[in-house]
Design goal:
Elements: E1 2-5, E2 12-22, E3 35-46, E4 70-81, E5 90-94, H1 103-108, H2 126-130, E6 133-137, E7 150-151, E8 160-167, E9 172-176, E10 184-185, E11 194-198, E12 206-208, E13 213-216, E14 224-231, E15 236-244, H3 251-265, E16 275-281, H4 283-293, E17 308-312, E18 347-349, E19 352-354, E20 367-373, H5 375-378, E21 403-408, E22 428-429, H6 435-450, E23 468-470, E24 492-495, E25 498-501, E26 505-507, H7 522-525, E27 529-532, E28 553-556, H8 561-567, H9 574-577, H10 581-597, H11 606-621
Parallel strand pairs: 5-6, 5-16, 16-17, 17-20, 20-21
Antiparallel strand pairs: 1-2, 2-3, 3-4, 4-6, 4-7, 8-15, 9-14, 10-15, 11-12, 11-15, 13-14, 18-19, 22-28, 23-26, 24-25, 27-28
Helix pairs in contact: 10-11
């Protein structure tokens, strides 16, 4: 164990390295050489009265130490070159997703792991060959011990009402409120507690008689509810009760800020970098949008923290990461409306003005990548179109020079492995890849920050050219056995205690149902299937008129013209599109070459595109119907 003390003025008071090991069996990653893993903890201390810390909700309610500062601790893991001089000098932070490390899976195509050590867990080694130092700092307090987390200060004696929404996939008499694992009812028998149910988030909730439901007591873990007759699958429930167990959730944002600042500006710590980026996806992309909005890209010395911020698959959403009784682990953003402001440039909506960057001086503002899939446009409270259109949905916005926006066309929230399988939806899961495009975009981001070279041009749908459209105008083909996506409900926000519906703008599609705009992977521009950002719930899990959150569809084409005509499928068959497999693969290679020219694909990844094409050809050639139902 190595304990590194720090100066008294710093927000980082100690870095405790409890383990230091070489990873991947000492494999050398190109010119960078072998990597090592450091694990341990970071001790923080923040002054509640310092202006930058005043943005941490309830920091003034936490009990300070004798030095009048609030102390807390985070777990930390670092993957760094054994010889730092052989790295690229960049610290690449990941905002870990519910304790899960995703960078190696996303950029290295590696097996997922919370504790990467083996060669397989480093995949193709892309990030290592590029020389990055990867930093993972715990920021979320509502996780189990042993997972990367922050030990957030408790707020003693605070009791307030909270509302916890939930939806189930099967009929159950009892359910756990896993969105609030650390909050407990102050009085489980409180007659003022309320349970409601509705079919859509904009519906008026219907209360359920208090005598028909109760909290289940005497069990460890998150609160549990029981309902006479059971909960109906596919319906939206919400329980409101007075809770205890509040934490200062916002210290998680301060932990990311202060660790990055210390590793960047200090020279006495075991981790050091001259340039710092941060990437987060889904929950963590929303975290980064909240991080920017709350002003955390300026440290206590008023210096810029991150040179680049990359929020992936977050849409226009943020989250309850910095509020009283926050619920970081919750996925309720998928069931509830989004919140203004949505954009990186200031705009006005209903008399309110704001932007994600409104608290910064010019020197604090980072380079920003905003990447989304079709899922974030189609549903689930993320309303991705709002990051580049006016809030009333009538016009495209000017995108600031420090921002790039990309749609990964016809992809789903998280890449599904091939071959496709059916999960909770009516159709197979969307398998259009993201990793190759993400690798190319990272190289573009790095060149933008360190060399001043312009990154690949933004590619996203626009109202002006018709590639972004109101959902009612989507030209999706009438495919037998596939529900009409035009019935998918749009986003909303809360105003005056009521839900106000927002414009539902989605990418326009071609005759096959694939997105027209954005970065079209060869799987999309040379298709053998329709790939969507939505997938309706299977009747087996209830709510079949609703979509599965975060899931897309893979709907293969018919093999022959005869098959398609028998099914009355309007999409051309494989036989009508391609002379044979060689013709198909040649077109894939040409499409990949165009992406390479635009710097949306690395030359080294072209062969992988072709190999996946062979697998797709074999899969679709074996299909006997046009629908995957």
């Amino acid at each position: 164990m190595v304990a590194v003390p720090t100066f008294t003025f710093s927000e980082v008071t100690k870095v405790n390295v409890t383990s230091r090991v070489t990873v991947a069996n000492g494999q050398a990653f190109g010119k960078t050489g072998p990597y090592e893993k450091l694990t341990g903890t970071i001790d923080f201390a923040v002054d509640p009265k310092e202006p930058h810390n005043a943005r941490i909700t309830d920091i003034d309610r936490a009990t300070p130490a004798a030095d009048k500062r609030v102390h807390f601790t985070s777990d930390v893991m670092v993957l760094k070159p054994v010889d730092p001089a052989r790295g690229n000098g960049v610290l690449l932070f990941e905002v870990v997703n519910r304790g899960n490390i995703l960078l190696l899976n996303k950029f290295n195509s590696a097996a997922s792991s919370r504790n990467p050590t083996t060669t397989e867990e480093f995949g193709n080694g892309y990030l290592m060959r590029e020389g990055y130092t990867l930093v993972f700092v715990g920021w979320e307090f509502d996780l189990a011990p042993g997972i990367l987390r922050v030990e957030a200060p408790k707020i003693d004696g605070l009791i307030e009402p909270i509302t916890v929404p939930f939806i189930l996939d099967s009929r159950q008499n009892e359910t756990e409120l896993d969105d609030v694992p650390l909050y407990a009812p102050a009085n489980p028998a409180d007659a003022a507690s309320v349970l409601t149910v509705r079919d859509h988030y904009w519906d008026k909730p219907t209360p359920i008689a208090r005598t028909k439901w109760h909290f289940v007591t005497g069990r460890p873990g998150a609160p549990r509810l029981a309902l006479d007759g059971g909960f109906d699958p596919g319906r939206l429930y919400a329980v409101t009760f007075k809770a205890t167990g509040a934490r200062v959730a916002g210290v998680g944002l301060a932990a990311i800020r202060d660790a990055a600042s210390a590793f960047r500006y200090r020279t006495d710590l075991p981790v050091r970098g001259t340039t710092v980026y941060v990437q987060g996806e889904s929950q963590d992309g929303r975290f980064l949008r909240q991080f920017l909005y709350d002003g955390f890209n300026a440290d206590e010395q008023d210096r810029r923290v991150f040179d680049a911020v990359w929020a992936h698959i977050a849409g226009s959403a943020r989250g309850t990461f910095n509020q009283r009784f926050g619920m970081p682990i919750s996925a309720s953003v998928l069931l509830t409306p989004t919140r203004f402001p949505f954009t990186t440039d200031e705009q006005e909506f209903h008399g309110e003005r704001g932007s994600l960057l409104q608290l910064y001086k010019p020197a604090h503002i980072p380079k920003i990548f905003l990447t989304n899939t079709a899922v974030e446009y189609w549903g689930g409270g993320r309303a991705a179109a709002l990051i580049h259109t006016s809030a009333d949905g009538t016009r495209d916005l000017r995108i600031p020079g420090n921002v790039r926006i990309y749609l990964l066309s016809s992809t789903q929230h998280s890449e599904a492995p091939f071959p496709p399988v059916r999960a909770r939806g009516q159709q197979l899961r969307n398998t259009v890849p993201q990793r190759e495009i993400m690798r190319a975009l990272l190289r573009g981001l790095d060149g933008w920050v360190r060399q001043g070279a312009a990154p690949p041009e933004s590619r996203y749908p626009k109202l002006a050219d018709g590639t972004l459209t109101p959902i009612a105008s989507v030209k999706f083909p009438a495919i037998p056995g596939v529900a009409d996506p035009r019935i998918i409900p749009g986003p909303g926000q809360i105003r005056g205690g009521k839900v106000e519906m927002l414009p539902h703008l989605v990418p326009q599609v071609d005759a096959d149902g694939n997105d027209v705009a954005g970065i079209r992977a060869p799987d999309v521009s040379v298709p053998v299937a329709t790939n969507t950002g939505w997938n309706f719930r299977s009747p087996s899990i209830g709510g079949s008129g609703e979509i599965v959150n975060l899931l897309g569809s893979y709907i293969p084409f018919a093999r022959t013209r005869a098959h398609r005509e028998a099914r009355k499928d309007p999409r051309r068959s494989i036989q009508e599109r391609y002379r044979n497999e060689d013709d198909y693969l040649a077109r894939l290679r040409a499409a990949a070459g165009e992406l390479v020219k635009g710097r949306y694909l690395l030359p080294d990844d072209v062969d992988g595109v072709i190999e996946r094409g062979r697998l797709q050809w074999q899969f679709v050639a074996a299909q006997t119907t046009t629908s995957s139902r």
